[in-house]
């Protein structure tokens, strides 16, 4: 078994017989949404600190998590997100390990129904 971090694009493409489609859109076009004044103010301070700290953990806590929190708020809490969850999808294929973030269409926040 190998963890998610040990996968490369080349390995995933080969192991799962995937075809890359370049130049297309992954998501449909959407209108941009301005961040709330609270998020904008927070990010104005936190981005430089996260960069200076230099760790993935700092970037997750000071940049990504506040943005996901705002997305959840904009969507009236109809989604949930989880940080640092063990997510063993298919151990025999090596799809095991801890994900930085998981986003769920379930509003249930106390536990991830996918785990």
Automatic annotation (TrEMBL):
Protein name, UniProt field: Uncharacterized protein
Species this protein is from: Nostoc flagelliforme CCNUN1
